[in-house]
Amino acid sequence: MRRRLGFWRGLAMVTVKPAMFVLTKRTWSGLEHMPDQGGVIIAANHVSEADPLILAHFVFDAGRWPQFLAKSSLFKIPLLGPYLRAVKQIPVYRGTADAVKSLDAAAAALQDGEGVIIYPEGTTPKSGELWPQRGKTGVARLFLRTGAPVVPIITWGPQTILDPRTRKVRLRPRTPVTVIAGPPIDLSKWKGVEPTAANLYAITDEIMTVLRDMLAEVRGETAPEQPSAARRTDEGKTA
After folding, report:
1. What does residue 143 show for φ and ψ, rounded to 5 degrees?
2. Residue 8 contacts residue 82 (beta carbons within 8 Å)
3. Tens digit of pLDDT for each residue in 82-126?
4. CATH topology of domain 23-219
5. Cα–Cα distance between 220 and 230 in angstroms, integer?
6. Structure confidence by residue, pLDDT tens digits, 9-28
7. What pLDDT is attached to residue 38?
8. How is residue 92 annotated by DSSP?
9. Domain coordinates of the chain in residue numbers?
10. E-strand spans in the chain?
11. How many whole angstroms separate alpha carbon 13 and alpha carbon 192?
C-alpha cells in the first residue's frame, strides 16, 4: 500500500500528473518490475531535462515515491530549492568535499525502504544520437553499500519536448513518450566485493549496457559501442 504523501508530496503529484496527462501520450511497460516495498535503486538513461517529470509520473504510478539524486545547483534556486527538499529530493555535490554526503543520504533512504532514482550519466548528451553515455560509479557504490536491487528504466521521447542538443522546446499536447522498466539487473556476482575502482567500473559498465540494449530495442536500431566507465574523459580524469 502506498504511504500517505503529506502536503508537499501531494501538491507535487496534483501539479505534475495532470500536466503530464495533457503533454504526453504515454507508452509504458514493466511496472510490475518495481518492487512494492523495500529499498530500490532506479537507474535511468537521460535524454532530456524533460524526462525527470515523465519518469517521476511512471515511478509514482508504479507505487513508489520518485526520489531523485539531483544537481546541487537546483537546491540553491529560491523557492525551488526548499520545495525540492520538502519532497525529499537529494542534492548531489559533485567535485566538492560534500560529495560523500549525497551517497550517505541516498544510502540512508534505501535502508529506510525508499526508492532512489539515479541518472548514471549524470547529465544529458549535448551532441550525438542520445545513446547512453559513459556512466559514473554512484549506482555501483550504492549497490555495494546497501545491496538494494537495481531496476533499469529507459525513456524515449522526452527529447522532442526539450532537445538537450539544441535547447529547443516544443510543448505540444500528447507528445509520444515511452517508459519501460526492466527486471532487476542480476548483480549477484558482485555482492560482497570490495569497492575497488575496477569493480565499480565493471558494475557500472554492466548497468549501462542493460540501459543501452533496452533503448536499442525501443528505437529499433543497433546501438553504438558502449563507452566504458573506466575510460578516461577528455580532461584526463576517470568518469
Report:
1. -60, -50
2. no
3. 888 888 888 887 766 667 788 999 999 999 999 999 999 988 999
4. Glycerol-3-phosphate (1)-acyltransferase (3.40.1130)
5. 28
6. 777 778 888 889 999 999 99
7. 95
8. E
9. 23-219
10. 24-29, 40-44, 69-71, 90-92, 115-118, 150-156, 175-181
11. 38
